[in-house]
Design a protein that fits this description.
single chain, 250 residues, Rossmann fold, seven-stranded parallel beta sheet, globular
Length: 250
């Protein structure tokens, strides 16, 4: 049987790292990406080198994305599953006090970065008439919460792009799915609060948050359905978080 290849963006931490582990455990060859080369190398050093490829690039850098993905060695080009996971939130404030550099980084990463990677990888999938793109959106792409403005807008864009990709790629036999998690304890809040670990820890205090493996489990489930089955959209929340802005804490 042919080997199966999954490319996971943002695999140096959190949900992306958990997805990479899960696909590897399920027998896939994995391509892991991120900006932190040392983490990619550490990850790879624990696994069978013939089944893992590290690509260090910033998804915001259009030419770097294209150059890196289009010059992949032949044996790594037939990507079956693309998990568009790389993303972040920066800050939590009203839009009228918002940091405009934060806005640029979120839109460039969560929306344009996802587009650059998807455009590049979809070329081969279209040619082979086979593939599955799984976008990691967020509950912030389904609802809007106070002070989440631009992050929510970026994830609403991921929701819209997932629908658009599904329509445009269906005739080529390509599946497009989106997974929208609520609160998952990863490095997400540390990044959002720019290294303030105490503030980040408070986000997950007093309730049972999701963990990265919960999301990886759903992503793998979606990828492992029969070829005629597509899970379009999945919203996954902690039981204690019925909507984005309500968390029942003990
Ligand atoms: P982490 O901060 O733990 O991981 C984020 C990953 O994205 C890292 O691997 C990081 O790699 C990568 N990344 C960020 N910016 C870039 C960039 N410019 N270029 C390449 N890679 C980048 O957070 P999560 O695992 O929680 O987040 C993963 C995804 O899940 C994001 O899209 C996030 O919006 C979404 N999400 C998270 C939720 C949560 O509560 N945690 C809930 C809903 C959605 P590196 O820094 O090495 O580049
Ligand atoms: C991450 C979850 O609720 O902070 O996307 O937006 S939330």
């Amino acid at each position: 049987m042919d080997k199966k290849i999954a490319l996971i963006t943002g695999a140096t931490s959190g949900i992306g790292a958990a997805c990479a582990h899960r696909f590897y455990e399920e027998g896939y060859h994995i391509i892991i990406t991120g900006r932190r080369l040392e983490r990619l190398n550490n990850f790879a050093s624990q696994l069978d080198a013939s089944r893992i490829k590290c690509l260090c690039f910033d998804v915001r850098d259009r030419s770097q994305v294209i150059q890196t993905l289009e010059t992949l060695p032949m044996e790594w080009r037939k990507i079956d599953v693309l998990v568009n996971n790389a993303g972040l939130a920066l800050g939590l404030s009203t839009f009228f006090k918002g940091d405009m550099d934060h806005w640029d980084t979120m839109m460039d990463t969560n929306v344009k970065g996802l587009l650059y990677v998807s455009r590049s990888i979809s070329q081969g999938m279209i040619g082979r008439k086979h593939g599955h793109i799984i976008n990691i959106g967020s509950i912030a792409g389904k609802e809007v919460y106070a002070n989440g403005n631009v992050y929510c807008a970026s994830k609403h864009a991921v929701d819209a792009l997932s629908k658009a990709m599904r329509i445009e790629l269906a005739e080529y036999g390509i599946r497009v799915s989106a997974v929208h998690p609520g609160a998952v304890e990863t490095e997400f809040s540390e990044v959002r609060f720019e290294g303030d670990t105490e503030k980040a820890a408070l986000v997950y205090k007093g309730f049972e948050n999701l963990v990265a493996e919960d999301i990886a489990d759903a992503v793998y489930y979606i990828a492992s359905r029969k070829p005629h089955v597509n899970i379009n959209d999945l919203v996954i929340m902690p039981q204690a978080q019925p909507v984005a802005s309500v968390i029942h804490r003990k």
